[in-house]
Write a sequence for this structure.
């Protein structure tokens, strides 16, 4: 913050990229009801993430021609790929009743919860400092797979049936949950603006499990977890499967369960896809094609999703982007 060439504006929302001809020259942004402009001496860097980077490009006139036409936005550069290729990890979960071992459930109600709150307050330790998942596994769930196709996320806790861990009350009785996700999904979705107002949320359509290969892999993952829970040493600690329960057994039932109850793990990427092909929105120097002096440096440039959590990879994209800028 001591640098003379850095200014940070908080509570500011960029509303469009400003152009002179095809050259990006700045950013318009809003704080409360006031509108401001920031002028770029060299380049504009877009780093609003996989939802908002394509949204800002579309609002600024870079996107699919039919979309821009429908929204009556002046075209700066046609780029059909902006907002396409949305990909994410989608997780379904199996929960069990635990016996003979303590889980977080029992500490999340009444007296024990008060103790945990005090521990957090005075020691910054305990239940309230824990991440939602504490152990991960990368496994080959599909028969014959040559590398890991599925990620498992273990939580020594379980939500009341029908609710997602992290968004609901934990059960009172001991429980454990294993989330399952396919590492390299084939399904692709999109992000697109629904009007020309920057404060309107764009449409986000992830198309989870649209490709049958994705549902097959997720199914294999769910069956893998059931086998894992049925094997020692875990089996001795498990009284019963509570979610979805053993009466959900057939393939179609399990996939229906996954579709109804699964959720994002917030690994959205790919909507300003980078690559050598001229048709892609961003080139291999992270420059937006069709215009000058504009780059995208965030998770949206990933051509496809990585086989794991996306944060570290995004940091590496940022490091690489910084190197490219300095050239
Ligand atoms: C709840 C959650 C949990 C996650 N857990 C993990 C995890 O455990 N491990 C892991 O590896 N990854 C995790 N991820 C994923 C990881 O956080 C993302 O992949 C990564 O942050 C993407 O970085 P990004 O720079 O592309 O976008 P972001 O980190 O989303 O950064 C974009 C920034 O731009 C700002 N912005 C957007 N639009 C505008 C605008 N118009 N004007 C001004 N500012 C704007 C946003 O406020 C945001 O600060 C998690 C994500 C979420 C949401």
């Amino acid at each position: 913050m001591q640098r003379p060439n850095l200014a940070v504006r908080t509570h500011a929302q960029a509303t469009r990229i400003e152009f002179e001809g095809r050259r990006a020259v700045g950013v318009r942004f809003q704080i409360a009801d006031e509108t401001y402009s920031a002028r770029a001496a060299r380049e504009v860097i877009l780093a609003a993430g996989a939802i908002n980077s394509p949204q800002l490009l579309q609002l600024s006139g870079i996107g699919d021609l039919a979309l821009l036409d429908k929204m009556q936005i002046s075209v700066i550069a046609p780029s059909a790929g902006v907002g396409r290729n949305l990909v994410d990890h989608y997780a379904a979960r199996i929960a069990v009743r635990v016996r003979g071992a303590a889980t977080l459930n029992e500490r999340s109600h009444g007296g024990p919860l008060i103790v945990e709150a005090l521990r957090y307050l005075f020691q910054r330790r305990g239940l309230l400092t824990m991440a939602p998942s504490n152990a991960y596994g990368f496994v080959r769930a599909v028969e014959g797979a040559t590398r890991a196709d599925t990620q498992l996320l273990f939580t020594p806790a379980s939500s009341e049936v029908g609710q997602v861990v992290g968004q609901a009350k934990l059960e009172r009785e001991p429980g454990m949950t294993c989330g399952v996700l396919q590492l390299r999904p084939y399904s692709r979705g999109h992000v697109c603006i629904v009007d020309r107002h920057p404060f309107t949320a764009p449409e986000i359509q992830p198309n989870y499990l649209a490709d049958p290969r994705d549902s097959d892999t997720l199914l294999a993952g769910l069956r893998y977890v059931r086998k894992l829970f049925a094997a020692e040493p875990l089996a001795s600690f498990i009284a019963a499967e509570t979610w979805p329960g053993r009466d959900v057994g057939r393939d179609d039932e399990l996939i229906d369960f996954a579709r109804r109850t699964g959720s994002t793990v917030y690994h959205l990427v790919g909507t300003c896809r980078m690559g050598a092909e001229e048709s892609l929105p961003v080139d291999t120097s992270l420059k937006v094609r069709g215009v000058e002096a504009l780059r995208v440096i965030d998770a949206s440039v990933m051509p496809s999703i990585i086989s794991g959590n996306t944060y570290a990879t995004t940091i590496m994209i940022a490091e690489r982007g910084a190197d490219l800028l300095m050239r």
